[in-house]
Amino acid sequence: MAWTWFHRLASPPYVYSLAARLTPWFAWPAALLIVTGLYGGLVVAPPDYQQGEGYRILYVHVPSAWMSLMVYTTMAAAAGIGLVWRMKVAHAVAASCAALGATFTFCALVTGSLWGAPMWGTYWEWDPRLTFELVLLFQFLGYMGLRAAIEDVQRADRVSAVLAVVGVVNVPIIHYSVEWWNSLHQTASVMKLSKPSMPPEMLIPLLMTGLGFTLLFGALLLVRLRAEVLSRERAASWIREVVAGEAARA
Amino acid sequence: MSAGLTPALEAARLVMARDLHLAIRRPGEVLQPLVFFAIVTTLFPLAITPELAQLRQVAPGVVWVAALLASLLALEFLYRDDAHDGTLEQYALSGQSLTWLLFAKTASHWLLTGLPLAIMAPVAALALGAPKGSVSGIIASVAIGSIALSLLGAIGASLTLGVRRSGVLLSILTLPLAIPVLIFGARATQLAMAGEDIAAPLYLLGAIAVLGITLAPLAASAAVRISLE
């Protein structure tokens, strides 16, 4: 009995309508949190005593970096579920994650580089976090490339799922190796991002944008998942009913 | 059947013997990655500077990047023929553990590419200004590191089995995964050239290799089964 909810998630029509119903529950809180968090971070929070106003890009950079890892983990978890239980919807979730994850990672890289320009005096520093994000971006691109190279959707699902699971085992190894690599070569120019104490008026907006980005990812994932399910099930009869119903309402 | 081996190990031994036989009869293919390695390491003095003092600084990186690219290039020989003529399919249908058979294939692949690379690497490093005392350290680091590279490559090659013109895709999939090996391998080579203790990065390379030996054949066999469906 307890597993009914899990089994129902395997049904594309159910997931399609569930995703449609859940989207506003993610999208509106996300918008609210991001707008308030950005206001708190960009206007209310005091300037940093060392970095002045320049640190404020943190309110976009840090949540993007959080999301890049979280999306990768979500993708790998969904892919693993798809491999083990042969659940088509889980593969659709993994497929929808890839481009979102690549985008968040790209945002983290760009904002990190822009932040580096005034702080380090250069747009690119081989900082361990930035390097790690770059490698993560390559992993997302590799996943998308593998998926695009295989025409049969079911095989693409399962092959790319193996890649995602292998990648997620490797992520901590890459993380620590990059960290150690850098500590061996480091010149003294890099500032520490995580300060031991962050005053609450700086921290609270960061937590708000962080949660906001998480919910934003949820909302975007649900929208992309619906598109993915639509395109995969385009031959199924329930799609015609859904499309006809939506056309009648519009 | 030799005494004491379980059927899975016996089958793995036969696969390994077959691969080694085939390679010995076509020595050209085995030599190609080594020639590639030699050419790539030659390009760097031409592109940077012939001065040994400067080359010495980049030598560990040059040797490791060249070794990484050479082992990537050699991956083509791992499955290509067996996938074409259906041997791989027969392995999957044989009833023996595909994981063990692929492990045997990867092991023979390492013997044919990783080990020769490990012997070539100090030659290239010496030409780039490495001191004579660093030879054993460089051999050890490339030998252990290339175990991990072969295993990672086996996963990549299995994933791209069903893909036409898979070369570039294979590199994009495999290279990010190989970054830790590159970091620790180049570090060990660097320490060896400086005459210092290389145990720490060597242990880390060994840890990655052991993790690869445990998990990579499982992932590779899962990927091969999916690709053959």
Short characterization:
By secondary structure, chain A is mainly alpha-helical. Chain A has helices at residues 4-8, 12-44, 58-85, 88-120, 128-149, 153-185, 200-232, 237-249. Chain A has a domain at 61-187 and 196-233.
List the helices and strands and how they pair.
The complex is a heterodimer of chains A (250) and B (229).
Chain A: H1 4-8, H2 12-44, H3 58-85, H4 88-120, H5 128-149, H6 153-185, H7 200-232, H8 237-249
Helix pairs in contact in A: 2-7, 3-4, 3-6, 3-7, 4-5, 4-6, 4-7, 5-6
Chain B: H1 7-25, H2 27-47, H3 52-74, H4 76-84, H5 87-93, H6 98-127, H7 135-159, H8 167-193, H9 199-228
Helix pairs in contact in B: 1-6, 2-3, 2-6, 3-6, 3-7, 3-8, 6-7, 6-9, 7-8, 7-9, 8-9
Account of the 3D structure:
The complex is a heterodimer of chains A (250) and B (229). Chain A has eight helices and no strands. With 250 residues, chain A is mainly α. Chain A has a domain of 165 residues. About 2% of the residues of chain A have low confidence. Chain B has one domain. The mean pLDDT of chain B is 90. Chain B has 229 residues and is mainly alpha-helical. Chain B is 83% helix and 0% strand. Chain B is built from nine helices and no strands. Chains A and B meet through helix 5 and helix 6 of A and helix 8 and helix 9 of B.
